[in-house]
């Protein structure tokens, strides 16, 4: 890892972050600010959404689940797109940090998608009268959850980390076709799930008293997602550096008796 050099075909911007030491130095200064911003923005969004925002005239207090569910759904899809980009960087440019970041991202993405499914079930029970229905939106999100889990398991299933990363990258790129299915399933098929309310081209389909705290929660959860991913990647880089130092020390220890015998001879 330490001696890996970026492929010369990669761009200059990729070169800048390819060195693990430079990555650690940059993120050491970024991570506290990013984590602090995530806490502040998310704190404002949660307080605003769960306590200060008005109850919905139709859904009542149940609508507050949306302030967690919707950000989790966006992060599940957006995070998977990030995983696909990392996979392209790994397969084409052999970026030395792309594999590590992807490896650490998939458990986080699986957790986010699980929260999306859980909060969706909690929201669906009072609204639809059931915890689960096999409609297009819910089923495609469940498939997305299994893709996250599959990537997390596949990259750890091989003794050779490079081979595992390669197989995981291929799975991520194949699975990316599910993301537009998740996004547009409510438009393509007749489902119980409500259509898009925020990303409509004409105007958002919700009152600003609910829209604004939702956007704050989404920004806060997004910053937290980025901070956790960066922290996990930093930990993976440092763990690999420590392992490399231990292996080098073990090789030196194994070589020392042989050198002493040659000196004695």
From TrEMBL:
It is a multi-pass membrane protein. Keywords: Cell inner membrane, Cell membrane, Cytochrome c-type biogenesis, Membrane, Transmembrane, Transmembrane helix, Transport. The keyword Transcription does not apply. The chain crosses the membrane at residues 30-52, 72-93, 105-124, 136-158, 170-190, 210-237. It is found in: Cell inner membrane; Membrane. InterPro entries: Cyt_c_assembly, Cyt_c_biogenesis_CcmC, Cyt_c_biogenesis_CcsA/CcmC. The keyword Cell inner membrane applies. Residues 22-193 form the Cytochrome c assembly protein domain. Belongs to the CcmC/CycZ/HelC family. Required for the export of heme to the periplasm for the biogenesis of c-type cytochromes. This is Heme exporter protein C. It comes from Sediminicoccus rosea.
